[in-house]
Amino acid sequence: MLRIKEAIVVEGRYDKNTLSQLVDTVIVETSGFGVFKNSEKLALFRRLAAERGLIILTDPDGAGFVIRNFLKGSIPPEQVKHAYVPDILGKERRKRAPGKEGKLGVEGMRPQVLEQALRRAGATFLDENAPQVRSGRPITKADLMLLGLSGGAGSAERRQALMEQLKLPKHLSPNAMLEVLNALFSYEDLAAAVQISGAEKEKVKK
């Protein structure tokens, strides 16, 4: 069991059940979109964030990003960390059919994937010195332009191909994409991935 200082916000009780088998910390639910109209629950999230820090861990679908963005705008940013799980197609065991977008939610993620997401978000692991997840410098907006991922002809196509290659959520604004990339990769990692993506595209052309 991993002991974490920060409280963790998830969408529902099945997400909480999955995560509670991995980590020992406060885990709170948004009850889906219920948090939008629940001032008491939002006040609790704010208090937890102020006292011990908060990690937001929502599903990688559109609904998950709506909830994440709502919380991002409701809690001081310096008190919040963002953990992201990858886009993986499939369905949870308890469900008869996949979700609307066909992606696994937090509930369906393997423990190793969840632990990696928390470490990359900068979670404070107690009783241990959490290892560095990545080395290298952060990614900037200028880097995205130089790598052909924004602001130029064909950049949207290259960006989409890269997101698919890295199994990253597709519901991302440019600013959110930069935030996610920095949560998961260094500049050196990104540059290498762009090079691989370009090489694969050339193979297809041939």
From TrEMBL:
GO terms classed as biological process: rRNA processing
Signal peptide annotation: none
A GO MF label: ribonuclease M5 activity
Ranges for domain Toprim: 5-90
The organism's place on the tree of life at top rank: Bacteria
PANTHER family in the record: RIBONUCLEASE M5
Protein name: DUF4093 domain-containing protein
